What does this fold into?
Amino acid sequence: MGWFWAESGNGNLTLTQACTKKVNEEALKCPVDHLKALKGKSVEGCPVMHNSKPQDGLNPLNHIPANLSLEKQTGQKLDLPKDRTVSSIPKGSLQSEDFWEYPSPQQMYNAMVRKGKIDPNTGEEIPEDAVESMVFVHNFLNEGCWQEILDWEKKYTEKFGVEPKLLQFMGKPSQLSPRARWFSILGSVFPSQFSKELPFDRHDWTVLRPDPTSSETENPGFKKVRYVIDFYGGPDDEEGLPTFNLDVRPALDNLTNAKDRFARWTEPIISEYFGS
It folds into this structure.
């Protein structure tokens, strides 16, 4: 994962029938094998510079090269689309109504070349005809992330009448979240109730939540809220299509986030035993 942004279904995403032909095995994973990173092995080649600094020529808001080339690579056989898709996710800028854009397939391909992922000498080559599908799946999953965040933010949106915005994001594939680690341990102890499978990626998204009482000077009227997102692969559905599980929640950075998580956990229990 790592490029960004699907339809939501309580954190479970499935690729629709109309998109089946666009998806192949290579499209269902990030260009880098994040599972190796999670197991402590060194992994090179992801087009997203997950832990880079602004001076490395990256956009500090998304840690992606600021000027991804649209030019075709030497030796590239296919003509990949150069048009970028506009997401449904509003940018954190308070001066405009801009939305985040996904990299085009050509930009994705160029980024993988830049990181040495497409190198026939190392056996790390990604097929050119898989790049479009990879971009599609990344966009699909990240749209799903935003829908889950909107659900968490719903009560604040309704209270203040202002939609949240995405300020910045970063991929952290090598940093296993405490929750993911705990679930994996529970899966080893209680395999019938929990899965010990580790997420194949992790993101941290910083969201601007409307808050008239906020003391934020850079973003007046908003407060920063960090979300942690773990990406899991799920079993194929009844039609044989791949599914994904998104574990999206506010980070335990403050008491408000802790209360929101406790309320979300207890809500179905209270509803079942005490009604609405």
